[in-house]
């Protein structure tokens, strides 16, 4: 529901490997809220099986080729999200 409420474009890949619990061995079916895909068909894409990851990542809308994200930037963002009060609120 959070994805829908965010009103952001996204691609969500739901595959067979996402349908089981690796810890308990329990099989589960991923169910999206009723009407989710229909309501978001103009801004999102839900892929049920295989997704062409290289093709998706080379699209200009998903990857800024000229910009390189530094290791320190990633480090700072991860620390902010995982080990700070602000990250607790965001999570």
From TrEMBL:
Gene3D superfamilies: Glycogen Phosphorylase B (3.40.50.2000)
Single biological process term from Gene Ontology: carbohydrate derivative metabolic process
GO MF annotations in UniProt: UDP-glycosyltransferase activity
Domain of life: Eukaryota
Matches recorded under PANTHER family: GLYCOSYLTRANSFERASE, ZEATIN O-XYLOSYLTRANSFERASE-LIKE
Protein name in the entry: Uncharacterized protein
Organism: Solanum pinnatisectum
């Amino acid at each position: 529901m959070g994805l829908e409420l965010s009103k952001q474009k996204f691609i969500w890949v739901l595959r067979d490997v996402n349908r089981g619990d690796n810890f308990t061995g329990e099989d589960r079916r991923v169910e999206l809220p009723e009407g989710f895909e229909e309501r978001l068909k103009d801004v999102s894409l839900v892929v049920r099986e295989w997704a062409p990851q290289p093709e998706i990542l080379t699209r200009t809308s998903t990857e800024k080729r000229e910009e390189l994200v530094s290791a320190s930037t990633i480090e700072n963002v991860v620390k902010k999200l995982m080990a700070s009060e602000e990250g607790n609120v965001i999570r």
